[in-house]
TrEMBL record:
The keyword Aminoacyl-tRNA synthetase does not apply. One of its GO terms (biological process) is D-xylose metabolic process. This is HTH marR-type domain-containing protein. Transcriptional repressor of xylose-utilizing enzymes. It holds the Pfam family ROK. InterPro entries: ATPase_NBD (IPR043129), ROK (IPR000600), ROK_cs (IPR049874), WH-like_DNA-bd_sf (IPR036388), WH_DNA-bd_sf (IPR036390). Belongs to the ROK (NagC/XylR) family. Keywords: Carbohydrate metabolism, Xylose metabolism. The keyword Oxidoreductase does not apply. It comes from Candidatus Enterococcus dunnyi.
């Protein structure tokens, strides 16, 4: 049982907790040296953390070189609490119940369902009930990913469904005690990469589906801009006076380089009724010339977008989260080949290791950062995707 489960941890408590998480196994004396806090403070803070069930004492460490007593070691207890994370797509709902370090307890997935303002709450309530039954510890946060623009937990604009017509945050907070978060899916995916997949301090993650969104993380903090619209890289203009885009501009990147544009183009070129990532993979396996040409074109156009991202945000890593790029890793080198500027060429470009689960992990990350009051949180996942 976690005492005072929703309280905001004070700064020194979070500092100690972060050191224990980062070092996996650490003594009180080492904590004092690392954090600069005196031994009495470390002793009092670790007592609180032990009482709250967030850490436990384990085994005996090695004695210091000066000799003396062997210290008791401390470890973080990821099973102290659980988190609920949801991804609400246009026609699906994915949910995960996980411990604080992202270890999954239970997941659910409902496909080909109608998601709109009328159905979303009953879908969520049912899913929360299904998952919560398996929670043998307190739930300390719930995060819901929405495919659209979200500002301060308020859904501002969802072009593909009408979730911007209800106050989902209010609906959820009136029903559940734990802290609730509503966030954009690409933002969450980037936070998932930051906490669970990469060691880097700054990154931009590109979520490429029907549109192209980006999440920007700087030392554990999501950079969302004044209105929650930072990272809308899909609406950066590639061709002035180009194709019309629903955003109101012409020639936006996502009208040329999104996965759905690639599928439509290939369906036309190959005279197929339907193309998705598995059809693309099949065409590549047969070394289909037209497909390879279209993919090279896609990688080139995407590299223009990535070049702009790098010029604006200067991240350590750019993560590409696209089913096409994940199943065809060779495309990454095409992107890299086109990133020739002095600014862009030192940035690491890589495929997402979390894939389609990145958004759910991002929800867990956001709740966990809040619960532990640690921004620069890093966990190594036991099972990677
Ligand atoms: Zn646009």
């Amino acid at each position: 049982m976690v005492v005072n489960k929703y309280k905001i941890r004070e700064q020194n408590e979070s500092l100690i907790l972060k050191s224990i998480i980062d070092h996996e196994n650490i003594s009180r004396a080492e904590l004092s040296t690392l954090t600069g806090l005196n031994k009495a403070s470390v002793s009092s803070i670790t007592k609180t953390l032990l009482d709250d069930g967030l850490i436990f004492e384990t085994g005996i460490g090695s004695a210091s070189i000066q000799g003396g007593r062997k210290p008791i070691m401390l470890q973080f207890n990821p099973k102290a609490a659980a988190i609920l994370s949801f991804d609400i797509g246009i026609d699906y709902l994915k949910g995960s119940l996980a411990y604080l370090d992202g270890t999954e307890i239970l997941s659910i997935q409902k496909k080909r369902i109608t998601v709109d303002a009328k159905t979303v709450m009953s879908l969520l309530e049912q899913a929360i009930e299904e998952l919560s039954i398996k929670a043998n510890v307190e739930i300390v946060g719930l995060c819901t990913a929405v495919h659209g623009i979200v500002n301060e937990n308020s859904i501002v604009f969802t072009p593909y469904y009408d979730l911007d017509t209800i106050d989902l945050y209010q609906e959820l907070t009136s029903r559940y005690d734990y802290p609730i978060f509503i966030e954009n899916e690409a933002n969450l995916a980037s936070l998932g990469e930051y906490v669970f997949s990469l060691d880097s301090k700054t990154l931009v993650s590109l979520s490429i589906h029907s549109g192209i969104g980006a999440g920007i993380v700087d030392h554990g903090i999501l950079r969302k801009g004044q209105y929650g619209e930072a990272g809308e890289i899909g609406h950066s203009i590639l061709y002035p006076n180009g194709k019309k885009c629903p955003c109101g501009n012409h020639g936006c990147l996502e009208q040329y380089a999104s996965n759905s544009v690639l599928y439509e183009t290939l369906a036309k070129v190959k005279q197929l009724d339907y193309v998705d990532s598995s059809v693309v993979k099949e065409l590549i396996d047969h070394a289909d010339t037209e497909t390879l040409q279209e993919l090279n074109k896609n990688a080139f156009l995407l590299s223009v977008g990535i070049n702009n991202i790098i010029a604006i945000y200067d991240p350590e890593v750019v993560v590409i989260n696209s089913s096409i790029y994940r199943s065809n890793p060779a495309l990454l080198s095409v992107v890299e080949h086109h990133l020739t500027s002095r600014i862009a060429r030192k940035v690491l470009i890589q495929n997402s290791a979390l894939g389609s689960q990145a958004t759910l992990y991002g929800g867990i990350a956001l709740c966990c950062q809040n619960f532990l009051n640690i921004r620069e949180l890093k966990f190594h996942l036991q099972n990677s995707y």
